[in-house]
Amino acid sequence: MLKVADIETFYGPSQALFGVNLEVNAGEMVALMGRNGMGKTTTIRSIFGLTPASRGTIEFESHNLRRLPAYRIAKAGLGLVPEGRRCFPNLSVRENLLVTARPGEWSLAKWKRCFRAWRSDGHKWPKPSLAVSSRCWPLAGR
């Protein structure tokens, strides 16, 4: 399903990833673990096109994603729920993925129910900069 082979990623002249390999098959859950500064975030950012890999291959369902922009990777079916403030705390991981990866499938009534539930947990309405949109959620697609 997802295969990452020998990717190398740079921040300017500094190399951050050196030949990273990863494979996730259908139905599997994989944890990417390591100490601070080991490249976990850079690996994820490279897969999703946010910090593009300069070498190697990133394939999802046999399609090469390495040179695609983030919105095209989202259209291919990959979604990212970032940690911290940018996810809805009362939604499950699956619901956060659905909201960010496929916003067109959600009706206005469903959005309102989600926000009402979120507010009922004592949260304030998100600022417009935190709203789900292709500007703030680069992988939301169009």
UniProtKB/TrEMBL annotation:
One Pfam family named in its UniProt record: ABC_tran
Keywords assigned by UniProt, alphabetized: Amino-acid transport, Transport
Ranges of residues in domain ABC transporter: 19-109
Matching InterPro entries: ABC_transporter-like_ATP-bd, BCAA_Transport_ATP-bd_LivF, P-loop_NTPase
Family: Belongs to the ABC transporter superfamily.
Stated name of the protein: ABC transporter domain-containing protein
Taxonomic source organism: Vreelandella olivaria
